[in-house]
Design goal:
Radius of gyration: 13 Å
Distance between the termini: 32 Å
CATH superfamily: Cytidine Deaminase, domain 2
CATH architecture: 3-Layer(aba) Sandwich
Strand content: 35-45%
Helix content: 10-25%
Bound molecules: zinc ion
CATH class: Alpha Beta
Largest sheet: 7 strands, mixed, barrel
Number of domains: 1
């Protein structure tokens, strides 16, 4: 069973994610999340631009076989230009790593963010000031 994971990231990192999503709007943006897990906290500390990302109107995908083996990648973040931050079946089928983070239009606050684990359960996000 265990406790649910809490995802933590800095305000700056979240702002960078929002910025990228705004730039690609109305297309979807996708980035990899690099971080470290300690106890029940998953600390995200870096964004990685995926090689050969496809930014479509439907789902932003990355051919996973082209990825380097990198165990510091803990998940992905992608944008939902519709503003709906629920996990779609397509998202679920493209699960990579431990978490999937979705940011929805208008990409402004924590209310526009949802994070799910590999079971599709909602995880909470903790924003730090650094
Ligand atoms: Zn999606």
């Amino acid at each position: 069973m265990g406790t649910k994971l809490i995802v933590s990231m800095s305000q700056n990192l979240l702002a960078t994610i929002f910025e990228g999503a705004k730039q690609l709007y109305p297309r979807e943006n996708i980035l990899f999340l690099r971080g470290k897990k300690s106890k029940d906290i998953l600390q995200i500390n870096e964004l990685v631009v995926p090689p050969f990302a496809v930014h479509g109107q439907g789902f932003a995908t990355v051919p996973l076989y082209m990825l380097p083996v990198d165990f510091s990648i803990v998940g992905t973040v992608h944008s939902h230009p519709s503003g709906n931050i629920s996990l779609s079946n397509v998202d679920f089928n493209h699960f990579f790593g431990r978490i999937i983070m979705i940011v929805g239009f208008p990409f402004i606050s924590k209310d526009n963010v949802a994070i799910y684990d590999s079971k599709g359960e909602n995880l909470s996000l903790e924003i730090t000031n650094e």
